[in-house]
């Protein structure tokens, strides 16, 4: 535990943060989904999102800045400077939970990517130190960083990213030594090594498809107003931007890991699970491993079943449906990240900024932030926090239903455009009820 009582490996607000009726919240959320679907069925009968026409060009002055070399270099330099600074804390800092390496790794990097990508676009792609190193190697060798030795296998798609994301959440939520410097440092070293080898073999497409953090950040950025078409910076509605998400094999695996691991984070702290683990003769480590896999696989199976149980007759096309509808889970993932990690990000994020001034735990104040205090305003307003959490979950599911509906009326046969959505609606309701139950039970 950190000095302020946070577990840096994971942290959510549980039932103590939610002074409202769980039954009322679950009933309201279910009603919101059903009403949304009914309204969509009556009023939204033709597709409204088209990646080839949606959005308008950003103002010329803004596009000239964003597309300039100095702007890209500035972001790369900032990302690499932070990488070196935090790397120094990881290598030369003390093996204490107050080492800022843990806060940057678990809070800024993992949770902080979500709001940054929502507001600014694909942030990790812009600041990724592995991309920067790969670019430097290419400049020195005279090669093109966009091209590797081999073509990236299309059949792999995003599956390597899904595996990488699972490796992270396993370290964060299950591994018993997740707040010891050695194992976390080794994990990051392994990540950097795999990314550099992958970039050398397959070029930058490897980062777009297989880097777990770039895939995560880019997916979340699809809910931002910033998009591109033929290299032109666009401003368009977040749902139109989301609909333009490229479909690659394994996309639904990525969202299943993101959603399933967040649900497991709540479940593992629930009273029922804690009592079961304590009363079992089986190792808690083994039980948590099984539960994490079960949550991720379970979410994937429920979603796959909801998308594949349609009137579509082509078996090959049916197997493609989970990936074609996977973008609709992105707003749900964002909603649950807000619900589960909002106070954690705000408060432990501040604590991390304070600790960054003293990376070697020797009383230094390099950044001038060591004497700041954490503001616990959110925790002091539990009703507001509860409302934000529940509304985030409901909004995420409603937006997911809208995204799925627009995709369904584009790709499903006319006779199945509504009835074909019913299994997915049932899956969405199951996610809503289960997610809110776990949010209250945590």
UniProtKB/TrEMBL annotation:
Keyword annotations from UniProtKB, A to Z: Membrane, Transmembrane, Transmembrane helix
Keyword check for Nucleotide-binding: no
Keyword Nucleotide-binding: no
Transmembrane segments: 24-44, 73-92, 104-124, 156-174, 186-207, 290-312, 324-343, 384-402, 422-440
Source superkingdom: Bacteria
Protein's recorded name: Fenitrothion hydrolase
Source organism per UniProt: Nocardioides soli
């Amino acid at each position: 535990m950190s000095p302020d009582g946070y577990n840096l490996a994971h942290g959510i607000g549980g039932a103590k943060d939610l002074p409202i009726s769980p039954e009322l919240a679950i009933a309201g959320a279910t009603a919101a989904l059903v009403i949304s679907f009914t309204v969509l069925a009556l009023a939204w009968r033709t597709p409204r999102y088209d990646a080839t026409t949606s959005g308008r060009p950003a103002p010329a002055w803004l596009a000239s800045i964003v597309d300039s070399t100095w702007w890209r270099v500035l972001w790369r330099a900032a990302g690499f400077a932070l990488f070196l600074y935090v790397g120094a804390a990881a290598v030369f800092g003390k093996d204490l939970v107050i080492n800022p390496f843990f806060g940057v790794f678990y809070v800024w990097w993992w949770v902080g990517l979500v709001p940054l990508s929502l507001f600014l676009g694909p942030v990790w792609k812009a600041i990724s130190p592995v991309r920067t190193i790969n670019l430097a190697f290419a400049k020195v060798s005279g090669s093109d960083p966009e091209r590797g030795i081999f073509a990236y296998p299309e059949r792999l798609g995003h599956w390597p990213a899904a595996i990488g994301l699972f490796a992270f959440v396993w370290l964060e939520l299950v591994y018993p030594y997740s707040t010891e410097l050695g194992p976390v440092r080794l994990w990051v070293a392994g990540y950097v090594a795999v990314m550099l080898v992958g970039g050398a073999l397959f070029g930058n497409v490897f980062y777009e498809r297989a880097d777990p953090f770039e895939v995560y950040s880019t997916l979340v950025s699809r809910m931002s107003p910033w998009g591109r078409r033929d290299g032109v910076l666009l401003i368009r509605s977040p749902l139109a931007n989301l609909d333009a998400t490229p479909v690659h094999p394994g996309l639904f695996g990525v969202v299943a890991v993101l959603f399933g691991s967040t649900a497991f984070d709540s479940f593992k702290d629930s009273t029922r699970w804690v009592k079961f683990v304590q009363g079992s003769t089986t190792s808690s480590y083994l039980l948590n491993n099984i539960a994490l896999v079960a949550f991720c696989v379970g979410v994937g199976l429920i979603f796959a079943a909801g998308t594949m149980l349609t009137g579509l007759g082509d078996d090959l096309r049916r197997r493609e449906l989970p990936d074609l509808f996977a973008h609709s889970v992105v707003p749900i993932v964002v909603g649950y990240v807000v619900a589960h990690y909002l106070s954690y990000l705000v408060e432990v994020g501040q604590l991390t900024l304070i600790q960054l001034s003293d990376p070697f735990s020797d009383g230094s104040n390099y950044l001038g932030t060591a004497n700041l205090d954490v503001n616990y305003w959110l925790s002091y307003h539990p009703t507001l926090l509860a409302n934000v959490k529940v509304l985030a979950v409901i909004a995420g599911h409603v937006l997911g239903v809208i995204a799925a509906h627009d995709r369904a009326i584009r790709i499903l046969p006319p006779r199945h455009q509504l009835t074909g959505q019913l299994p997915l609606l049932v899956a969405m309701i199951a996610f809503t009820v289960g997610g809110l139950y776990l949010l209250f039970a945590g």
